[in-house]
Amino acid sequence: MALDPADFTKCCKDSGILMVVKCRKENTALKECLTAYYNDPAFYEECKMEYLKEREEFRKTGIPTKKRLQKLPTSM
Fold first, then answer.
1. Following DSSP, what letter does each residue of 20-49 receive, concatenated?
2. What pTM does this model have?
3. Which pairs with CB-CB distance under 8 Å and at least 24 residues apart come from 23-30?
4. Mean pLDDT for the chain overall
5. Cα–Cα–Cα angle for 17, 6, 41, nearest 5°?
6. What are the phi and psi torsion angles at 45 (to 5°)?
7. Is the pLDDT of residue 2 over 70?
8. Which has the closest alpha carbon to 11: 75, 21, 52, 1?
9. pLDDT tens, residue by residue, 45-64
10. Which own/partner contact pairs does 6-10 have at CB distance under 8 Å and 24+ positions apart?
């Protein structure tokens, strides 16, 4: 049975400083999950297209995505 990557976070929170020793199984599962995404050509293309879209929008507006998505204050 594969572990959920969130299990690593829970293990670390529960184990404190002993996480290095106690969470090896969860860490290995997390690494396997991340490596699968890293090596997936479809995921790479999806990320590349998202990046290019954000870059194009930045070049048009000069405003980074994070700044564009922030809400303006309602009281002015």
1. HHHTHHHHHHHHHHHHHHHT-HHHHHHHHH
2. 0.58
3. 29/2, 29/3, 29/4, 29/5, 30/3, 30/5
4. 86
5. 120
6. -65, -40
7. no
8. 21
9. 999 999 999 999 999 988 88
10. none
